[in-house]
Amino acid sequence: MKRLLVLAVVVAGAYGCGFPTFPPLLNRVVAGEGVRPHSWPWQVSLQSNSRGRWSHVCGGTLISQEWVLTAAHCINEVDDYRVELGKHSLKATEEGSVARSATKIITHEGYNVLLSRNDIALIKLSSPVALSDTITPACLPERDVVLPHGTPCFVTGWGRLSTNGPAADILQQALLPVVGHDVCSQPDWWNVLATEKMVCAGGDGIAAGCNGDSGGPLNCPNPDGSWDVHGVVSFGSGEGCNVLQKPTVFTQVSSYVWWIKQVSSCLFLQLPFDKNKTNKQKKNIY
User: Which domains does the chain possess?
Assistant: First the structure.
């Protein structure tokens, strides 16, 4: 299946997008669980520096060797930021993990903090990362693709393990089925706060463990076993995690593919990408 993706000009060799070396173990656990180590190799930790110490503030998604996708609300003009990649535990020193400072951060020009509109940002890393078994970019969906109601997607992150509970040490995942816009925008759901440029997922009232850190990915499967990142965690209910009829709301990546290409046009090439052929041959350009 051919698709246009945003690609960097550096040859990455053996690693294509969307196919983890260590596939995730999908037990359909709605309440959330620790992940198989490095099974979501595009998941990153966005960190800020406070008094000389780096602390996790948001999740993010590696989309090329030099660029990370996250939420605009994760960024302020005061803090210094860096990105850690290839992490499973945020506390342990792990072989193969790397850190890169953020040399450029671009938030969407239409971002509205009050209504969470256009809640998306790009971070350019200080230098390209070498792709490996533990660091692989995500695939992006085709432009304007809308997921069907009930699509079984997974949110990942180091968020709180329960409402008002402690933050996770190891990366967590939780099953969050997509809620169609016609449902999510109903008055007793998110009403007008949910726009057609957002994806809603969850909202069944079963505690989801708050796995989806702000800025982190909504990972959705393809028939060929690969994964596309369809969402960036934007907001949820102030009453807790996965509240009934208040699903987690994500910025819909497919609505911003063109924006991603425009912002990074000086560094990216627009090339046709045959994901099946590329991964079978174990070659890709990133």
Answer: 41-125 (2.40.10.10), 151-254 (2.40.10.10)
